[in-house]
Specification:
The protein has a 7-stranded mixed β-sheet. Strands 9-10-8-11-12-13 form a 6-stranded mixed β-sheet, sandwiched between helices. The chain starts with a helix and ends in a 7-residue tail after the last helix. By secondary structure, it is of the alpha/beta class. The protein is flat and about 85 Å long. Helices cover 43% and strands 16% of the residues.
């Protein structure tokens, strides 16, 4: 397999915009590498005396170099390295949208000497050429895949270096401490005694800041993958009405007949900046109907896989034996009890009097009247409170680390703790340096200062082609 240095010596090309039939007015083919400008000159003809200068737009035609057949009327943007995304020479053909134009232009670029870019290879080159660090590269991927404004803002924070800066600061402090300790090992007789109290205080400060950043991991996971919520309950308690009221649509069929919903119905929402995938499930009950049995089985599977269950009951009927049977199955899940159709029970009020009973273990209860569009705001507040209950606050940091970054940061924090234990046990200085180097390496993996090619392959393989 070609090494990264081998890859950098080649010229790559790919379609950099989404290709959808009959959709989009503009499509971009990006070419990067030492032959980018030569390839552009071989297939693009700019009428008149337009200067082929860097960072200027040329108007013209993409033509087949042998037949001179016109492939597209297009614009060409030339960006001479290092003033480009990859820090290499880059040529971008801005073609008509759709499928055929960009695909034919890409094919001409490949025939002229470029090779098809691998997923994320343009951003990989930007990283290898020093334009981006690894956290910024991952921020780009997060921005492309953002499902909410908050997820996009978190990605932009990473792209702006707001994660790399504190990580580099921590690594710099660790390097300084390592230098202090190793100096005492090599030149013990020439230097004053090591201030162990100072070393311990510095290690504690670095550990505390590492834990603070690590506390953003759960938020990052929510912003990237979203929350899966299942609306569960027996038939005819208003689950589909709740989904329709919440999503402000008619995604689910609503009737007075029990068992109307036979399959899981999905809707995608954003609650407090967090993407939420809502699953309206079939009513869970004993039934002889084979189709409904399949729906019930899928409902149970959806509840088991959900991050949060909205256990919905009918305020008119109260807590029934069927509700109790369902609760026994789902009680280990994170759940909110939704008492629906409260408009038909005016005696309930807002204080949950004893006329409606339910298990005391259920901590969060929300009143709704889905058919009347009531209680949805309270439901969203309860969902957000459940998500953040017990979560460590991250000191208003606007960053949100991903799983890879969290794993590396956890290794760094663990190594720092081992250094403090070595100091407390009065172990020789050599033992201190082993774990301190481990912390430095783990912190370097986050920003890419210490990272293997296999890790880079794993990271950038998740990118789309053309990015």
């Amino acid at each position: 397999m070609a090494t990264f240095s081998d890859r950098l010596g080649t010229t790559i090309a790919a379609i950099a915009t989404a290709v959808v039939p009959q959709q989009g007015s503009v499509g971009i083919v990006r070419v990067s590498g030492p032959q980018a400008f030569a390839i552009a000159r071989s297939i693009f003809q700019a009428p008149g005396r337009q200067p082929w200068d860097s960072h200027r737009i040329l108007y013209g035609f993409v033509r087949h170099p042998d037949t001179q057949a016109t492939v597209d009327e297009a614009l060409l943007l030339l960006m001479q390295g290092p003033r480009s995304y990859t820090r290499e020479d880059v040529a971008e053909f801005h073609c008509h949208g759709g499928m055929m134009a960009v695909q034919q232009v890409l094919q001409l670029c490949l025939e002229a000497g470029a090779r098809l870019a691998e997923p994320g290879e343009f951003t990989l080159r930007a990283f290898l050429n020093g334009r981006l660090d690894l956290t910024q590269a991952e921020g780009i991927a997060d921005l492309v895949g953002a499902q909410s404004p908050q997820a996009a803002q978190s990605a932009i924070a990473g792209l702006q270096g707001k994660l790399a800066q504190p990580i580099r600061h921590l690594r710099s402090l660790c390097l300084s401490l390592l230098a202090e300790i190793e100096a005492r090992i090599d030149f013990e007789d020439d230097l004053p005694p090591l201030d162990e109290g100072y070393i311990q205080r510095q290690l504690q400060a670095v550990s505390a800041e590492a834990r603070q950043i690590l506390a953003t991991a759960d938020r990052g996971e929510l912003l990237r993958t979203g929350l899966k919520v299942a609306i569960v309950g027996r038939p005819n308690v208003g689950k589909s009405s709740l989904l329709n009221a919440w999503s402000r649509s008619d995604r689910a069929i609503v009737t007075d007949l029990p068992g109307t919903t036979r399959d899981v119905v999905e809707s995608y929402l954003v609650v407090g900046g967090i993407p939420v995938r809502v699953l309206d499930t079939a009513g869970i009950r004993e039934t002889e109907d084979q189709v409904e049995q399949i729906g019930v089985a899928r409902s149970q599977a959806a509840a088991a896989a959900a991050d949060l269950v909205l256990f919905t009951i009918d305020a008119q009927a109260g807590w029934t034996a069927d509700d109790e049977a369902i609760y026994q199955v789902i009680q280990q899940r994170s759940l909110i009890l939704v008492v629906n159709k409260v408009d038909l029970r005016p005696d309930l009020g807002t204080d949950f009097p004893g006329t409606l009973t339910y298990p005391a273990a259920i901590a969060t209860v929300v009143h709704t009247a889905a058919a009347q569009q009531q209680g949805i705001e309270d439901l969203e507040k309860a969902i957000l409170a459940t998500i953040h209950a017990g979560a460590t606050q991250a000191a208003n940091l606007d960053i949100a680390i991903n799983q890879r970054q969290a794993e590396a940061l956890l290794r760094a924090e663990t190594a720092l703790r081992h250094v403090q234990e070595a100091i407390a046990q009065q172990l020789p200085l050599d033992f201190w340096t082993i774990d301190l180097r481990g912390a430095i390496q783990a912190l370097g993996e986050i920003t890419g200062e210490e990272v293997t090619e296999s890790v880079l392959d794993q990271i950038f393989s998740r990118f789309c082609i053309g990015k």
